[in-house]
Amino acid sequence: MSGAERRALVCGAGFMGHGIAQVLAAAGWEVRLYEPALARAVAGRDRVAANLDRALAKGRIDAATRDAILGRILPAAELPAAAAGAGLVVEAIVEDEAAKRALFTALDGLVPDDALLATNTSSIPIARIAAAVRPERRGAVIGMHFFSPVPVMPLVEIVRSASTADAAEARVRAIVAELGKEAVVSADRPGFLVNRMLIPFLGEAMRLLEEGTGSAAEIDAAARLGLNHPMGPLELADFIGLDTLLAIMEIQAEGLGAPHHAPPAILRRLVAEGRLGRKSGAGFLDYPAG
Fold it and tell me: Is 145 annotated as catalytic?
């Protein structure tokens, strides 16, 4: 790829978006990191800088590489200018269907006709997002689901709707390989592959806590030591974000009609209390400042 094809737009500079911008920039892409408020876009770039500084301190990259990667990420708050000439768009905003559809409708009138429109959704059917763009563009809409932390996790789920073109899948496969990651392809079903397996597991851990079968520490230790998981399920839930998990569980429960995908009462209560996990300082576990 060359020219405009090497320009990417990442919409959303938060938990996932800044990591996606980092790996694209590390692979040589010119990245516009978009948020409607410029301060949030700048904060996302600052998080990339912090990631790179840690890598520099550990000797994993040199100063020139750090500066080159960061120099390829430009914070942006004006969507028309950010979208101009983008060959790849990766949407990584809040896990809300209405918000994603509104963004894709706006992008439809702004990006080049041959641009890929990828969504990082972890649960919303791609066909429903693709319906927000013109019929002739729906072949270029595809799921490109990264995992957190994006610079570390090696997997990307590619999700095809019935409208996704073979050429779009091939282009995304090539990009995933360029990023040094592995791809798996999922049909357009709620939860795709990973969350279809993960969500019932996390939900069952929450129900164990809810019914008093074990404490949070015991449940997490059981998974780490008995199942050889690197992180316990409640710790993982806090890492993902409990509000994000609640949205995913609601989508999967609705789409699959299966009670074991539904959010437990304890999850709803914690979210209502503002205990959202690591990002708020407390969830199933508490996280001291710093």
Answer: yes
